[in-house]
């Protein structure tokens, strides 16, 4: 029986070294990688203690098969943390004007009922810049294991945001959306905001 695979996002530190360039080149050729971006990452204060060896610049790639990506990361271990966000369920997807320029990743403090998830989807869908919202889990890779285990790795929410506005204003808008979700009694916290600087594929 073939192993169930998942699509999602991978986010690897881009250090402008031989290893980063090698991964970038191989993903540009790979059929498994749909899109790839050069991004700046802004980690929330809440998430920093769990990932002390984070980077400022990352390659963000949208993949179809997580097991292939995991093999790539195991083959190229890095000191700074790399992240894989696998998709479990799609809350919604719709056409939004403009190109994707921001990916916002959150975690929920408690796993949720179906009713909570539909409340969350409803609150997020009011943000008219969000083209896609998915829930999933996260795996982190680093040659230096973190001191603390991230306890919310199975409760990840990823929003794809399309806008012509500045990253700061998009971030503010997403923060407002996060507060609206919290008002419904669902504790959603920021993990990382990824500002897209350049589309590479």
Please describe what this structure looks like:
By secondary structure, the protein is α+β, with helices and mostly antiparallel strands. It has one domain (8-199). 25% of the residues lie in helices and 38% in strands. It has helices spanning 18-29, 66-75, 114-125, 167-183; strands at residues 8-13, 33-43, 57-63, 82-93, 100-108, 130-141, 156-162, 188-199.
Record the SSE blueprint:
Blueprint: E1 8-13, H1 18-29, E2 33-43, E3 57-63, H2 66-75, E4 82-93, E5 100-108, H3 114-125, E6 130-141, E7 156-162, H4 167-183, E8 188-199
Antiparallel strand pairs: 1-3, 1-4, 2-3, 2-8, 4-6, 5-7, 5-8, 6-7
Radius of gyration (Å): 16 Å
The largest β sheet comes out as:
8 strands, antiparallel, barrel
Poorly predicted ranges (pLDDT <50, ≥5 residues)? none
Number of domains: 1
What is the number of strand segments? Answer: 8
Q: What form results from the Cα inertia axes? A: globular
Counting DSSP H or I runs of 4 or more residues, the number of helices is 4
Structural class: alpha+beta
Secondary-structure element pattern, one letter each: EHEEHEEHEEHE
Mean pLDDT: 92
Q: N- to C-terminal separation?
A: 33 Å
Strand order of the largest sheet: 1-3-2-8-5-7-6-4
Helical proportion, percent range:
25-40%
Per DSSP, what share of the residues sits in E-state strands of 2 or more residues? 35-45%
